[in-house]
Amino acid sequence: MPSSEPxxxxxxxxxxxxxxxxxxxxxxxxxxxxxxxxxxxxxxxMAGRGGLNLTHSEPLPKFLARYREAMxxxxxxxxxxxxxxxxxxxxxxxxxxxxxxxxxxxxxxxxASPLLRAWLRRLDGAGVRLLLRHRxxxxxxxxxxxxxxxxxxxxxxxxxxxxxxxxxxWPRLGSDGSWVDVxxxxxxxxxxxxxxxxxxxxxxxxxxxxxFEGQPLKGVALSVGGQTVRGExxxxxxxxxxxxxxxxxxxxxxxxxxxxxxxxxVALRPDLGIDELTTKLSAPKGKQSxxxxxxxxxxxxxxxxxxxxxxxxxxxTSLPSQPPADLxxxxxxxxxxxxxxxxxxxAISTAGGIAFDELDxxxxxxxxxxxxxxxxxxxxxxxxxxxxxxxxxATGVAAGKGALKWLNA
Length: 409
Description:
409 residues, 20 strands, 15 helices, alpha+beta, single chain
């Protein structure tokens, strides 16, 4: 017969919440997962729309460094549930993984939906209840959890609570950051939520924007503040985004917030030194156009040549008039002035959240005994490449284990 004892409440049916629920259910606990949306894992499914990047295969010390200032706070959770454990977990659900050419790890099915379906079936088989269209609004005076449902407000007693409500990016998928005010009212310190892995604003000319919107800058190296990242960036109507941009997201965002703008330098041929570029640019041009000369001499794509022309025009110069050495330096340090950050609602992920000093070693809120937190609602950020999901899963495991330890104390 079902137990009449209150269950453990997990609020949020994303990767962190579902993983916490699995840890609890495997230990024999009675678990109910609540979510405001009509279905589970909506942002997880969105993350897998172009291929579900579960984690990354790089060595763990390098992997952990991707979390920057939050690394000391996340290291124990990720070391306890590292990338290989996540791959093993996926395979146990019938979704084996593979390592892509970039070192990123994907399910062989490449999609999130088969993995999520198998996971929800296993959770259901373990007795985990999933209650949807339940929007958490806080606690009542008796410490019961309050949920707004389509029919009425519900008050629920829970033995312990795990909050896994996400950040505030892509709020239409469920994580809207409404929990911030609820926890702040209880004295919990929360770093302001900010866009992470987001696009940045560049004042393109109409000609450049209309012709190259949506096209990639491939094989470039981006540099700012002593940091350099190789990869790809995408020209957007309002600026620039993409994996290489996201890897520098935190530095770029902080510089824009501090100074109002930041200059990003783009190396179009990072494998060629200035001397070699200068030699190639010193070759006779003949009767060909200068654009055609650049294309043939340096194997530059039309978008990279147009970018050079865009920057030269903005500075009041022309490419053909520049000495080869000066042009060589420009080609490998094209300055882009970034003046803004895409809104949080359009960011891939969220920076900021519950400060780690508000949590104990078991991810329990010090001010709220029996209440744990996991996932993106904590104050950390990471670039795309598998790091976001890995930390969400790992902190979900840690919070689940923390709740068990607290209940059994």
